[in-house]
Amino acid sequence: MPTRVVVLGFGGREHALAWSLGSEPGINAVWVIPGSDAMGEEPRVATYPRFGRENIDDGQFVSMFARGQAAELVIIGPEGPLAAGVVDKLDRDGVVAFGPTAAAARIESSKAYCREVVEAAGVPMAPGRAFAEKTSALAYARELGAAGGVVVKADGLAAGKGVTVCGSAVEAEHAINALFNMDPRSIVVVERRLDGREASVIAITDGNRAIGLPAARDHKRLRDGDDGPNTGGMGAYSPLPDLNDAAVERIIETVHRPILGELSRRGTPFRGFLYAGLMLTADGPVLLECNARLGDPEAQVILPRLGTAIAPWLRAAARGAIPADAPKLLPVLPGAAVGIVLAAAGYPGESRTGTLIDGLESARVKGALVFHSGTRRDDAGLYRTRGGRILTVVGRGRDLEAARAVAERAADAISWEGMQRRHDIAAVLPVPVGAAR
Fold first, then answer.
1. Among 407, 348, 360, residue whose Cα is nearest residue 384
2. What's the pLDDT band for 93 if we cut at 50, 70, 90?
3. In terms of DSSP H, where are the helices of 128-168?
4. Taking 60 as the threshold, does the pLDDT of residue 23 lie above it?
5. What number is the average pLDDT over the span 360-367?
6. 385 vs 30, 76, 342, 357, 389, CA distance in Å?
7. Angle between helix 169-182 and helix 134-145 axes, rounded to 10 deg
8. What is the pLDDT of residues 236-290, one digit of tens each?
9. Which one, of 222, 212, 225, lies nearest residue 253 by Cα?
10. Per-residue pLDDT at 97 exceeds 50
11. What does the alpha-carbon distance between residue 280 and residue 428 come to, in Å, rounded to a whole number?
């Protein structure tokens, strides 16, 4: 059990990690850099909001900080430091870090590379191709569009917003043109749109072995009914009635482990959170994307459900030493969790900042967890918006209906000018398949 842990990041995912770690037996101190004012209110958690976000992309800075605190584990939250090679530097300096190297993190930082790895691993994925030239991309989009919808993806990191789901070839052409006009040297991935329900299955991996976390479902579109532009995620829930324990175990065996094997074969073993974004189609689960990190807002509904401390597993994985007799899935507490994201006016475009937030304490009194993504505390001790996704309000209950009721009541208590949110997270549930975790 590590006793001194550093977490890199500043969003709702990192707040959920700090909240979870700070309550685990044996943890004496959690440092989040840069973190936020709200994270610093959690027991045994210290934050450094004065640090710039660029600091967490600087491996030398992170290494010096971790060694100065005698940290026994560094957990990388967002994708930026992974792509920047922070783990590579920590490894060289002998600091135990949970997260993939920059080479292994290409599974997220390049969607074209992800397709290459996944196809080599023999994992089912939506039909598609990567293009470095606009004319060929447009022709392929028209070909796919004749048979249904099209998905257009920017190749690189885009904070969860680089995907455009298009209902027609014309919409796809607009999306492709926009990406190439923004940067003529772009690589653009064009895929067939699949029908079904999305699911997020995330595993703790040590380069070889994998332990599954509870499955979750993220809602990407801005408005109710899955309408509006794609975002980084407007809400999530767990468990999934249509993905039981046995199904999650099969996904770990048929998706995560083959990908881990292929990455190891290429000399880039993956240690970290391996995130599989899936479409549950009539023909079975099909991979949509891989991420190299814990999802946000999935983390905010997964971590409160865990029935065991997570830090020992992360440290074991970081050292490439998950025991052979480890469970296939981490144990969970009874019940469910539903998270509702509250976003600033203008999001997912340029959003308003500095707006006073009202009702935070009322939300807590109503029984919710409130994880901060984009807030700051002013000189009077009041919280204001910093733009983007501001809060995730999480309700817990005996089942999804009860958890949703808590989340809705608490979210209703919070307000600020221009606040955006959905009211349908976990409102319409799929037909249950077996006993979901």
1. 360
2. very high
3. 134-145
4. yes
5. 97
6. 25, 24, 11, 7, 9
7. 160
8. 999 999 999 999 999 999 999 999 999 999 999 999 999 999 999 999 999 999 9
9. 212
10. yes
11. 16
- Mean pLDDT across 124-132: 93
Residue located via tokens 């340029």? 350
Confidence bin at 146 (pLDDT 50/70/90): confident
Specify the pTM: 0.94
pLDDT at 435 over 50: no
Per-chain mean pLDDT for the chain: 94
The identity of residue 387, as a single letter, is: G
Q: What kind and span of H or E run contains 83?
A: helix 79-83
Instruction: Please tell me the distance from the alpha carbon of residue 392 to that of residue 235, in angstroms, as a whole number.
Output: 8
Query: At residue 376, does pLDDT exceed 80?
Result: yes
Distance CA 340, CA 361 (A): 16
Residue bearing tokens 């060289």: 92
**Cis omega before residue 229 (within 30°)?**
no
CA distance 249 to 384: 42
Q: Which residue has the higher pLDDT, 394 or 432?
A: 394
Q: What is the DSSP string of 17-54?
A: HHHHHHTSTT--EEEEEE--TTGGGSTTEEE-TTS-GG
State the Rg of the chain over Cα: 21
Q: Could you count the other beta carbons within 10 Å of the beta carbon of residue 400?
A: 23
Which domains occur in the chain, in start order? 4-99 (3.40.50.20), 128-192 (3.30.1490.20), 335-428 (3.90.600.10)
- Confidence check: pLDDT of 36 > 80: yes
- Distance CA(122)–CA(258), nearest Å, equals 7
Which structure tokens are listed for 385?
Answer: 């918006």
Let me know: does 395 contact 411? Beta carbons within 8 Å: no
* 145-to-177, 190, 191, 193, 433 alpha-carbon distances in Å: 16, 11, 10, 9, 32
Distance between CA atoms of residues 114 and 107, nearest Å: 5
Share of the chain above pLDDT 70, in %: 98
Residues in Cβ contact with 204 at an 8 Å cutoff, skipping those fewer than 6 apart: 210, 211, 213, 273, 310, 313, 314, 317, 322, 330
Q: How far is CA 393 from CA 13, 238, 313, in A?
A: 12, 14, 27
Taking a C-beta distance cutoff of 8 angstroms, is the pair 7, 18 a contact? yes
